[in-house]
Design the sequence.
């Protein structure tokens, strides 16, 4: 007997299984591994913390991992690389590999036709029922490939109508396509805006191709910024949510991004995502070759903090690839190569997806419930002290990752005013390779989180714990599988009490290093 | 003359859509220009569109092995 995936999932859903258990059963059915950390608690929490948004907006963002920080712990997205052409040149991008504009530098494993992309979306949606969003982000500019981009949306809307569609663009041709975007019900558009001043733009964009001519320097940047702002205004008029991505380039546009923030906020942008420049000589970009550095972790945080009073800031961006698949921070694209997809028995079952997502909502409410009670822990405590902590997690809002298995750490700022506030993540290479720790890798982790006072993990070995302690970072495993925010607050309260009674001496920590993601090794190996 | 595409082509396909003569197509490994169809954009644009949009310098280049394109007499 060979059950299809949706039969397995539907049976599990009917039996009242948790989302993790449904995934486990589907994974077992597929014969691949998955992790299933227990520790699930029943809870009847309130809805999520972003309820201060108008309901119609919340409805649009609540399941979108890129538009809602809270959603990104629970819902996954995928990108299909159907759009290879681009119409501008950026100094942080090398088209030999891929466009860094909306994806980290690295090769896309393969380019897809709209038909292949539609099949891939169905295959992924059937395997990963929490995949709610399909984005087209390149590897070039989606709106420089309008036919391929919109054909892909058309096919997906027909076969998988519950999936949200989004795209990201440099904005040059956006005004020409806003009505088509509205027609295909694309209600999330990301524009990469690095400047609103052509003199700054001239340092970032060597040229733009517009109306059959190539414009260089200031002239090109002037056209680009005018088209971007016009496109943004047109999106806002039509009620399409927009996110602005900006690449922070120290010495070029870092202070200027405060102006950008004001300009896009004034035109109705919903969210601003300031990302660090990814720049290394081996990427072959102009900035990589000229030695232009990216920002440090604290430089990035300070700029994001400066803009935060103005509008919503996105801090959970992973600068993912144009063919990424999965939760932000994980990449399952290697499971879904065209070769593998063609062999998959895809059966798109909307009901199973709904059942699974209903379970996710229950878990999400449990997290929100824990979050709501967190501040009560701090009631009556007041302090000027703010500290950062790092968390090893693989999702669901819990501390559920082994220190040595973490490919990234989520960073929370703890204060008596805001409780536990998510402020970003830090990538690290796998510290533990083949089951044992490696010294150099541990140093990498320490450099990436050395502005943190503590790191929360599900488990950690004795040696790394000691080395972290020597670096002034306390490794904490007592909250394994507990909710992140609640645990962090409990820790923070204890910390403040320790400072008060003199058993802990509070010291400010320094800065940390931002490490871009490595080019996915499995993709290179597959080539 | 016609234009031709050098091996530095990154297969981004941008030139294909811009060509007014539909002279460009995906070849083996890189994109190729059909010299029988290429007019160097004479009669359409001031400059060859493939060369303007190509992200890699010196990749869409003049192929000297063909005589200069002569637009038909008006």
Sequence:
């Amino acid at each position: 007997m060979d059950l299809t995936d949706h039969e397995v999932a539907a049976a599990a859903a009917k039996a009242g299984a948790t989302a993790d258990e449904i995934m486990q059963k589907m994974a077992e059915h597929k014969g691949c591994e998955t992790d299933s950390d227990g520790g699930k608690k029943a809870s009847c929490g309130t809805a999520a913390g972003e309820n201060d948004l108008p309901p119609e907006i919340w409805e649009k963002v609540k399941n979108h991992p890129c538009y809602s920080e809270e959603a990104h712990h629970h819902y996954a997205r995928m990108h299909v690389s159907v759009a290879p052409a681009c119409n501008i040149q950026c100094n942080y991008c090398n088209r030999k590999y891929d466009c860094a504009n909306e994806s980290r530098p690295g090769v896309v494993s393969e380019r897809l036709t709209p038909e292949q992309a539609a099949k891939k979306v169905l295959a992924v949606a059937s395997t990963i029922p929490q995949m709610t969003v399909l984005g087209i982000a390149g590897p070039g500019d989606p709106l420089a490939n309008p036919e391929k981009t919109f054909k892909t949306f058309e096919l997906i809307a027909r076969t998988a109508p519950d999936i949200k569609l989004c795209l990201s663009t440099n904005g040059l041709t956006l005004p020409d396509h806003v009505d088509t975007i509205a027609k295909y019900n694309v209600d999330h558009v990301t524009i990469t805006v690095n400047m609103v001043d052509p003199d700054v733009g001239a340092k970032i964009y060597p040229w733009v191709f517009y109306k059959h001519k190539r414009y260089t320097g200031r002239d090109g940047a002037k056209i680009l910024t005018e088209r971007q702002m016009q496109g943004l205004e047109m999106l806002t008029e039509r009620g399409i949510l927009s996110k602005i991505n900006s690449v922070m380039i120290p010495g070029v546009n870092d202070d200027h991004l405060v102006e950008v923030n004001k300009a896009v906020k004034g035109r109705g942008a919903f969210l601003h995502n300031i990302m660090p420049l990814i720049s290394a000589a081996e990427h072959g970009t102009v900035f990589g070759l000229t030695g232009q550095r990216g920002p440090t972790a604290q430089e990035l945080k300070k700029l994001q903090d400066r803009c935060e009073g103005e509008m919503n800031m996105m801090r959970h961006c992973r600068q993912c690839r144009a063919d990424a698949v999965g939760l932000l921070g994980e990449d399952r694209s290697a499971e879904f190569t065209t070769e593998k997809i063609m062999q998959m028995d895809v059966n798109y079952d909307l009901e199973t997806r709904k059942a699974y997502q209903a379970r996710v909502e229950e878990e999400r409410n449990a997290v929100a419930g824990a979050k709501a009670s967190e501040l009560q822990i701090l009631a009556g405590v007041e302090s000027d002290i703010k500290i950062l902590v790092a968390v090893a997690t693989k999702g669901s809002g819990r501390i559920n990752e082994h220190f040595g298995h973490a490919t990234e750490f989520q960073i929370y700022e703890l204060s008596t005013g805001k409780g536990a506030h998510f402020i970003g993540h830090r990538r690290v290479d796998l510290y533990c390779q083949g089951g044992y720790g490696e010294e150099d890798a541990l140093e990498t982790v320490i450099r990436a989180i050395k502005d943190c006072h503590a790191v929360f993990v599900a488990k950690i070995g004795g040696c790394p714990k000691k080395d972290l302690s020597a670096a002034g970072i306390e490794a904490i495993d007592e909250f394994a599988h507990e909710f992140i925010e609640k645990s962090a607050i409990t820790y923070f309260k204890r910390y403040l009490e320790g400072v008060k009674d003199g058993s802990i001496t509070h010291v400010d920590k320094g800065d940390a290093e931002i490490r871009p993601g490595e080019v996915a090794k499995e993709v290179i190996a597959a080539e | 003359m016609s234009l031709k595409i050098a091996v530095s082509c990154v297969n981004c396909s941008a030139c294909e859509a811009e060509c007014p003569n539909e002279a460009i197509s995906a070849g083996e490994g890189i994109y190729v220009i059909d010299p029988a169809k290429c007019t160097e954009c004479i009669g359409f644009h001031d400059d060859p569109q493939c060369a303007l949009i190509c992200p890699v310098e010196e990749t869409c280049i003049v192929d000297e092995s063909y005589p200069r394109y002569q637009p038909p007499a008006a």
User: Anything to note?
Assistant: The mean pLDDT of chain A is 80. Chain A has two domains: 75-330, 378-501. The two ends of chain A are 36 Å apart (CA to CA).
